[in-house]
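lol ok so funny story. i was supposed to be doing the assay writeup but got distracted and ended up predicting the structure for this chain instead. priorities right. anyway since i did it might as well share w the group, maybe its usefull for someone
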Amino acid sequence: MRRIALMVIRLLYKAPYYFYHISKCASREDISYEEGFRWIKKTTILANRAGRVKIEAHGLENLPEKDGFIMFPNHQGLFDVLVFLESCPRPFAFVIKKEAANIILLKQVRLALGSLVMDREDLRQSMKVIQTMTEEVKKGRNFLIFPEGTRSRQGNHTLEFKGGTFKSAVRAKCPIVPCALIDSFVPFDENSIRPVTVSLYYLKPLYYEEYQNMKTTQIAEEVRRRIDAAIAAHMEQRTV
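and the output, tada:
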């Protein structure tokens, strides 16, 4: 991946400093995840600039006033979490698949934020992760989880959203924030270092009063519908 190589080369002299602080946040219980988030955000912004990636975030005003919400975006690629880490003003943890959990730096980031590791092949373990996330959200922590379960590999087209990923929100009775990622697959999927812009739309949340009588599959369909509509509107505007 040429862009990752560019990031590494351009940040070579700064990387040890930031890696040290993120690792310290990951290993010490007396450092809050808010502090870890601040260091990770700083590092992410530097990395994205070094990689010639611009993030355009829309709809930040749609984030709930109180913490204790879950963001549900479409999943386009490895760059997705970096978009949120740069643009989201509120600390959050995320759910990561087991296969990527121990990649260097990513491991330290997840530990610093208290993120959760999910084994998609183990239903019982996956349900434990959903329950843990439920309890953490009830305590006022924010989370990011990808309801498609895997990256779409179809550019700006979404896959089916899995109803099971919404069980944590239903149990926590928390706000659901649909998020539409556009062109987030480009930075790491294209073998290029050309400047690229990734767009992210934080859409109006669904509150418990709105979805309490819906099945999780219906919630998944509604969230996907809103994301697809936001992507379509963006693409239409881009062609004008």
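The longest helix spans residues 216-239. DSSP finds ten helices and seven strands in the chain.
back to the writeup now i swear
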